[in-house]
Amino acid sequence: MSGSIKESFERAFAEKNNTNDANEYVSDEDSGREQERQLERKRAKKRQRQTRSTNPKGRKSVTQWKTTTVCKKESVSSDKYPEILSTGKEFSTNTQQTELILAQTRYFDKDNADPMAQVGVYTHMRPVDYLFVRALIQRPPIKNFDILQKNDSDRMRSVVTTITRAYEESYLCEPVGSQRECLLGDECEGLNISHAKDRVFILREFLKPSEQKEYENTGKLPTKQNLCLMCRRLELMRAHTNIRADGMGVREDTILPDWCNIVNTEGEYRLEDCVISARGVWEGILDPIVAHSQSAYRLVEKNGIRHYEQWRMGYPQTDFRQPRHLSI
Question: CA-CA distance, 328 to 79, in Å (whole number)?
Answer without folding.
Answer: 17
